[in-house]
Design goal:
Blueprint (H helix, E strand, L loop, with lengths): L32 E10 L3 H12 L4 E4 L8 H4 L3 E2 L10 H8 L1 H12 L1 H11 L7 E8 L2 H13 L8 E4 H4 L10 E10 L2 H14 L3 E3 L6 E5 L2 E5 L3 E10 L17 E12 L14 E3 L9 E2 L4 E7 L7 H15 L8 E11 L6 E6 L2 E5 L5 H16 L11 E2 L7 H19 L1
Parallel strand pairs: 1-2, 1-10, 2-7, 4-12, 10-17, 16-18
Antiparallel strand pairs: 3-6, 4-6, 5-6, 8-9, 9-10, 11-14, 11-15, 13-14, 16-17
Helix pairs in contact: 1-8, 1-10, 3-4
The chain binds flavin-adenine dinucleotide.
The site of flavin-adenine dinucleotide (FAD) has 44 residues, from α1, α2, β11, β15 and α10.
Length: 433
């Protein structure tokens, strides 16, 4: 496997909103010379970092390579929401069971239902300082929508998920708005500063003995006898197993990864700290998502009291004027009477989605595997899938995993669908929201 590497086209992470309060980054050296490991991992976002942590915890020697720095990509620039569900709550546990069967579907549901709890435990266990906050609210605009969504959320309880429907009166304690008839409360969801979590995970992996290299893009990956040899500009790794966790940033080295899922471009807007720290709209600063928005409307108040809102990006929307056109009407509708503050920062990133909203474990080659398709929920779906890939590398039987292991299979017309999503579908749903 080898390829050329187009620029990724994003601003440096130092300009990112989250770096205002995230702890300083652990300095990552560049890989120089040749080194050996049981497992080489490409990509130090949440997926690669969690895999490295699980493998090092089980006594494997691990080299983790990132083209940039840990958390430089989606993991350091996302919106921080932790929602233990399948994509946007739209895929229900029963639909998963009917698609994957009682056994596998049940395991997938249990894995996702427990994923928020698992992440908060991990943060606590390793003392990661990342502004972690428990509690998440999904909002419904009408009684009918609340009843419909409550029914599907209740399915999660069969698989260990925890949720509670709250009516307009209960909601008023958390959301200052007349626009919603009620909500679904997820005590095991929540919020983190994503860059702080990425940096905390990186520092933890290093403490656990992982050799983590930044500025070390994998340029080729070839079999060298029974081992893999991964070359970077200044060094190489020989390893028994190769794991790839390049997310939406998979480059030409792994063309299959860009065709087994669709690429979503997502943007985030943030204000400076609000004078009342957001108390007039979200008094307890729980992150929320509007279940009835056709696109994405998930405002939150961060640790500094800034309002942070994410949105799906169509062509040219990474321009403040266009982003405001998408987000401001949503904020006005959600919080009538709220005087909309000035947004000071905007950034964007990419992640991969699959047609059925579930992640993919892919068998690339002999002892070479990849994970993809976090479906916009990297903290829960993405990290869960990464843990399964780590189990595989530890020798767990593939039939005992909580996700099926699949051969990479190109989605039909993936290039055309990526274009349609970005140029037609997202602008339309953004308008319809
Ligand atoms: C704007 C935005 C908002 C989001 N909001 C949320 C949210 O609120 N909640 C949530 O749960 N999820 C959210 N997500 C999704 C979440 O961020 C991702 O699912 C998750 O971060 C993916 O993690 P990852 O490790 O798979 O990939 P990434 O974090 O994208 O990391 C991939 C890494 O691979 C590296 N890489 C690629 N190719 C190579 C190579 N050849 N050699 C070496 N390194 C390489 C890159 O440099 C990069 O660091 C959001 C995503 C975006 C973009």
């Amino acid at each position: 496997m080898s390829g050329t590497h187009p620029p990724l086209g994003h601003e440096p992470i130092s300009t990112c909103h989250w770096s205002r309060t995230a702890p300083e980054a652990h300095p990552c050296p560049v890989l120089e010379g040749t080194t050996e490991a049981d497992v080489a991992i490409i990509g130090a976002g949440y997926s690669g970092l969690v895999m490295a942590l699980e493998l090092a915890g089980a006594g494997r020697s691990v080299v983790l390579l990132d083209a940039e720095q840990p958390g430089w990509a989606a993991s350091g620039r996302n919106a921080g929401h932790i929602a233990p569900l399948f994509w946007g709550a739209k895929k229900t546990p029963r639909q998963i069971v009917s698609a994957y069967g009682d056994d596998m579907g049940g395991r997938m549901n249990r894995m996702i239902a427990g994923s928020g709890r698992w992440l908060f435990d991990l943060i606590d266990r390793h003392g990661i300082v990342c502004e972690a906050r428990r509690g998440y609210l999904f909002l419904a605009r009408t009684e009918a929508s609340l009843a419909k969504h409550h029914e599907t959320f209740a399915e999660w309880s069969e698989f260990g998920g925890v949720c509670e429907a709250i009516d307009r009166t209960g909601l008023a304690r958390h959301v200052n708005s007349t626009a919603y008839a009620g909500g679904i409360w997820l005590p095991e969801g929540g919020f983190v500063n994503p860059l702080a979590l990425s940096r905390g995970l990186a520092a933890t992996t290093v403490r656990k003995g992982v050799r983590l290299f930044g500025g070390s893009r994998a340029l080729s990956a070839r079999k060298d006898g029974p081992a893999w040899r991964i070359e970077t500009a200044q060094g190489a790794v020989r390893s028994g197993t190769l794991l790839v966790a390049a997310g939406g940033y998979a480059d030409a080295l792994f063309p299959a990864l860009r065709k087994t899922a669709y690429t979503v471009h997502c943007g985030v807007l943030a204000t400076d700290p609000l004078p009342d720290k957001g108390a007039s709209i979200l008094p307890n600063a729980f992150p929320v998502t509007d279940l009835d928005d056709k696109a994405v409307f998930s405002p939150t108040i961060d640790a500094e009291g800034c309002l942070v809102v994410s949105f799906l990006i169509g062509p040219g929307d990474l321009e403040m004027r266009k982003a405001l056109k998408i987000c401001v009407p949503r904020i006005a509708k959600a919080f009538p009477g709220f005087s909309i503050p000035e947004f000071k920062r905007m950034w964007a990133g990419k992640f991969m989605i699959t047609p059925d909203g579930t992640p993919r474990l892919l068998h690339l080659d002999d002892n070479a595997f990849a994970v993809t398709g976090c479906n916009g929920l990297g903290h829960t779906i993405g990290i869960s899938a990464a843990r399964e890939l780590a189990k595989l590398a530890l020798g767990v039987d593939r039939d005992a995993l909580n996700l099926p292991l699949q051969q990479p299979k190109s989605l039909p017309a993936s290039g055309a669908t990526n274009w349609l999503l970005r140029n037609i579908a997202f602008p339309l749903v953004n308008r319809a929201g």
